[in-house]
Design a protein that fits this description.
Layout: H1 8-14, E1 17-18, E2 21-22, E3 38-41, E4 45-47, E5 50-62, H2 65-78, E6 82-98, E7 105-119, H3 126-151, E8 156-157, E9 160-161, E10 164-166, E11 182-184, H4 187-201
Antiparallel strand pairs: 1-2, 3-5, 4-5, 5-6, 6-7, 8-9, 10-11
């Protein structure tokens, strides 16, 4: 999830990717009856050639077909059966500025979907899990600072920083200090994630079935 200054335009026009997700919501319309997503708009951030704003939309939602297919391939490649898939959030990037070769005002945007594949990973021992959590605690402040420089100020609630959510959780072997495995989660949403993960790993509905391409409204 690193965005170097030199590739900001590429991200805005072409999207971005990590091992957890690609594509975001895309241009499709949400089906009737869906609800507005919990969202967080970050301040505009100066970038080469203009400025960028990041908006975070939070699930969790059932995975769209594309994400479920990616999870089936990932779990099979790692040798663990797929139990479920959870679409955690969408990042929306808005960019405005001017192009060097065409000095006229330009606006662009991109979306990026974050999802988690609940492969049947073995659980770490309590001691191993505690050790990984200590790694994260040592890394946390520097990570938040670096994230803020790339995407906008790390969100806070009552002057308390939002927690960093590990997409592949530490209990199931997630890397505690991999930037592509962490994103800021609203505290109430982070609690929902933590309650939903056991059901996803347990192969329980709704995480074991495919959902709509766009499960929320902006």
């Amino acid at each position: 999830m690193k965005l170097a200054g030199s590739v900001v335009l590429l991200v805005c026009f072409a999207g971005c990717a990590t091992t957890q997700g690609t594509g975001g919501s895309g241009p499709s319309r949400p089906p009737p009856g869906v609800q507005p997503a919990t969202k967080k708009e970050l301040p505009w951030l100066d970038v080469p050639g203009g400025r960028m704003k990041t908006t975070l939309y939070y699930g969790p939602w059932q995975c769209r077909r594309e994400f479920m297919n990616d999870c089936q391939k990932q779990c099979a490649a790692e040798g663990y059966p797929l139990k479920g898939c959870m679409w955690l959030a969408d990042f929306k990037f808005d960019w405005e500025g001017s192009l060097v070769l065409l000095p006229v005002p330009v606006r662009a945007g991109s979306r990026f979907g974050l999802f988690h594949c609940c492969c049947n990973y073995p659980e770490l021992s309590p001691e191993e899990n505690a050790a990984r959590r200590k790694e994260w605690e040592k890394f946390r402040e520097s990570y938040r600072e670096g994230w803020s420089e790339k995407f906008g100020k790390w969100p806070e609630e009552g002057e308390v920083s939002w927690p960093g959510h590990h997409i592949r959780d530490l209990k199931h072997g997630g890397n505690p200090v991999d930037p592509s495995n962490i994103f800021p989660a609203k505290p109430s949403v982070h609690d929902i994630y933590n309650r939903a993960y056991p059901a996803c790993y347990g192969g329980q509905p709704p995480w074991n079935t495919v959902g709509p391409n766009l499960p929320y409204t902006d």
